[in-house]
Amino acid sequence: MAHVAPTYAGTAGMTADDGSRYWWVLLITGGLWSLFGLVVFRFDYTTVAALSVLLGTVCIAASVLELVAAFNTHGWGRVGRIVFAVALGVVGCVAYVHPGNTFSALAAVFAFYLLLRGIFDIVMAIAAREYPLWWVTLLSGIVQVLLAFWASGNFGHKAFLLVVWVGASALAHGIVEIVTAFRLKPAQ
Question: What is the mean pLDDT of the chain?
Fold first, then answer.
C-alpha cells in the first residue's frame, strides 16, 4: 500500500513530501498574518464601512490562500479547500458590496467566517494528529469557534469588539502558519 502524506493543518496545503522545500512561504505568510493582526489593533475603526472593508480584506486574503493550497492538496482535501475558499470569497464580497450594513449584520458575517475557519482548523488538526505540534492548530480552531460564538452574541455591538475579533483571528492564523513552517523545515 502506498504511503500518502497528509496535508498539514492550517497551512497552504503542503504535504510532508513537497512542503519541506517551501517551508519559508508559510513562515512569510504566517508573519504577515501576525503583523496584520497587530496592525489592526493600532487603527481606529469607528465606522461600520471601515470595519466592513477590513473584514472583506481578511476574507478575500484567506480565500486566495486556500485556493493556492487547493492546488497542493489531493482528494477530498482539495475539494474541501475549494469549497472553503469559495465560502470565504462570498463572505468577503458581501462585506465589500454592503459596507453600510448595520454592525450586527457585519458581526454575523464575521462570526460565520470564524466558525468556518475554526471548524476547518479543528478537522485538519485531527487529521494530522500524528505530527508534532498538531495541537497548536487544534487550539487555534477551538479559539476561533469560541470567538465565532462570542461574535454572534449580543454583547453591546461595540465596534472595538469586531476589531478584536479580526485581530485575534489573524494572530491565530499567523501563529499556526509559523509553527507549521518550522515543523516542515528540513533538518540541517
Answer: 76
Cβ count within 10 A of residue 28: 12
In the chain, what are the domain boundaries?
Answer: 45-184
Phi/psi at 59 (5° precision): -65, -40
Distance CA 182, CA 187 (A): 10
pLDDT of 104 strictly over 60: yes
| Distance in angstroms (rounded) separating the CA atoms of residues 159 and 142 | 23
In terms of Cα–Cα distance, which of 81, 88, 96 is closest to 61?
88
Tens digit of each residue's pLDDT (9 = 90 or more) over 18-51: 557 778 888 888 888 888 888 877 766 666 677 7
pTM: 0.62
Which residues touch 69 (CB under 8 Å, ≥6 apart)? 7, 11, 12, 13, 14, 81
Q: Quick check: helix, strand or coil at residue 7?
A: strand
